Amino acid sequence: MSTLKYYYVYIVRCSDGSYYTGVTNNVQRRISEHEAGIDTKCYTYSRRPLELLYSEYYFDIRQAIDREKQIKRWSRKKKEALIAQNMDQLHEAAACKNETSHLLYKK
């Protein structure tokens, strides 16, 4: 009998107020590793303590990694909307507002 394996995408707030997004198969263990400062080259090393703000899970590691990469590209405002689970704010933050936006473009 096979057990399902979960992969988690998580967001932590660092002591400097920045956000770090990662992927793991065990959120609590990974946060403990960040807090312990195991890897001096890790983004979070000099930004401890950390606070876990958000996580979501996947059954497929590729989907989790793709999601992690997607969230890492997001603006702070968009990440905060996701953390707050405010879908209206998330969609608003995702809207393109530059001059070439299809919403503003006039023929």
Structure keywords:
single chain, 3-stranded antiparallel sheet, GIY-YIG endonuclease, 107 residues, 36% helix, 4 helices, 2 domains, alpha+beta
Strand order of the largest sheet: 2-1-3
Number of domain modules:
2
The tally of beta strands, per DSSP, is 3
- The structural class is alpha+beta
| Main sheet specs | 3 strands, antiparallel
Stated plainly, the CATH topology of the largest domain is called GIY-YIG endonuclease
Question: Which CATH-level-2 architecture of the largest domain?
Answer: 3-Layer(aba) Sandwich
The whole-number mean of residue pLDDT values reads: 90
Q: What string gives the helices and strands in order?
A: EEHEHHH
Helical residues, percent: 25-40%
Which runs of at least 5 residues are low in confidence (pLDDT < 50)? none
Spatial extent as radius of gyration: 17 Å
Strand content: 15-25%
Tell me the name of the CATH homologous superfamily of the largest domain.
GIY-YIG endonuclease
What's the end-to-end separation, in Å?
A: 61 Å
CATH class placement of the largest domain: Alpha Beta
Q: Please, how many helices? A: 4
Shape: globular
Short description:
The chain is of the alpha+beta class.
Describe the structure.
The protein has 107 residues and is of the alpha+beta class. It has two domains: 7-73, GIY-YIG endonuclease (3-Layer(aba) Sandwich); 75-107, no CATH class. It is 36% helix and 20% strand. It has four helices and three strands. The chain has a three-stranded antiparallel beta sheet with strand order 2-1-3, with helices on both faces. A hairpin with a 5-residue loop joins strand 1 (7-13) and strand 2 (19-24). Helix 3 (76-83) runs antiparallel to helix 4 (87-94). The N and C termini lie far apart (61 Å). The relative contact order is 0.17.
